[in-house]
């Protein structure tokens, strides 16, 4: 894959908060002058994305969850059925003075294959689609510019199919999905899917990893 075109654009600063409304697991982002910002990406199984991004310097927390669909407060079983419209996604809380949204986009396009429609490897279904859920107009503009540049450069053998949509409600996934790789390293999926993908990812971003 060809080297990425760098496009810099500063985004609105947001603060992340987790709010419980009854039995709902809803993540909220409120515009506020702080040193944190939030990116929301879908790129296949959220266990993989969480493990890849949490090692990047400047990333303060990665939360697995569901977004992009119509079902209110979905469960993992419902999302896996492919009937909710939701994608498995991660909210990435980061310090933009350490890592920029542009750099997170670069990581996003390395972390998965954005030319696969509604699948990543053996994980098949709309819940595994490639998507960028923007929090504001600047993120939307930057994501679209980035995709256009990659397509123009023919960085991939096929066109990018990544969806770019406004973030609506982000539902935080069940507790057992959080820090999944860290807590289940001996499971076959972790050893044979997540670990190799993470090792490949870390080789590309070795200068951007936490020490």
Describe the structure.
With 211 residues, the chain is α+β, with helices and mostly antiparallel strands. The chain has a single domain, classed as Peptide methionine sulphoxide reductase MsrA (Peptide Methionine Sulfoxide Reductase, Chain A, 2-Layer Sandwich), CATH 3.30.1060. It has helices at 46-53, 76-80, 101-111, 137-152, 180-183, 188-204; strands at 14-21, 24-31, 37-43, 59-67, 87-94, 119-120, 123-124, 130-134, 163-166, 170-172. Helix 1 (46-53) packs across helix 3 and helix 1 (46-53) packs across helix 6 (188-204). The protein is globular. The relative contact order is 0.22.
Distance between the termini: 27 Å
Compute the number of strand runs: 10
Order of helices and strands: EEEHEHEHEEEHEEHH
Percent of residues in β-strands: 25-35%
C-alpha geometry: globular
What structural class do you assign from the helix and strand content?
A: alpha+beta
Biggest beta sheet summary? 8 strands, mixed
Task: Give me the CATH architecture, please.
Answer: 2-Layer Sandwich
Enzyme class: oxidoreductase
Active site: 45
Protein name: Peptide methionine sulfoxide reductase MsrA
Family: Belongs to the MsrA Met sulfoxide reductase family.
């Amino acid at each position: 894959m060809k080297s990425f075109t760098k496009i810099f654009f500063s985004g609105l600063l947001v603060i992340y908060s987790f709010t419980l409304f009854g039995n709902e697991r809803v993540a909220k982002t409120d515009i506020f002058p702080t040193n944190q910002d939030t990116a929301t990406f879908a790129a296949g199984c959220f266990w993989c994305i969480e493990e890849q991004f949490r090692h990047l310097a400047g990333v303060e927390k990665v939360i697995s969850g569901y977004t992009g669909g119509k079902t209110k407060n979905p469960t993992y079983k419902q999302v896996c059925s492919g009937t909710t419209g939701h994608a498995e996604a991660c909210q990435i809380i980061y310090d933009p003075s350490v890592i920029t949204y542009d750099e997170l986009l670069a990581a996003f396009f390395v972390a998965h294959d954005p030319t696969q429609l509604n699948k990543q490897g053996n994980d098949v279904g709309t819940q595994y689609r490639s998507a960028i859920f923007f929090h504001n107009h600047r993120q939307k503009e930057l994501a679209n510019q980035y995709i256009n540049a990659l397509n123009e450069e023919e960085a991939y053998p096929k066109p990018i199919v990544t969806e770019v949509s406004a973030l609506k409600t982000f539902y935080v996934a069940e507790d057992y999905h959080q820090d999944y790789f860290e807590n289940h390293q001996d499971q076959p999926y972790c050893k044979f899917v997540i670990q190799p993908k993470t090792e490949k990812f870390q080789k590309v971003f070795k200068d951007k990893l936490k020490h």
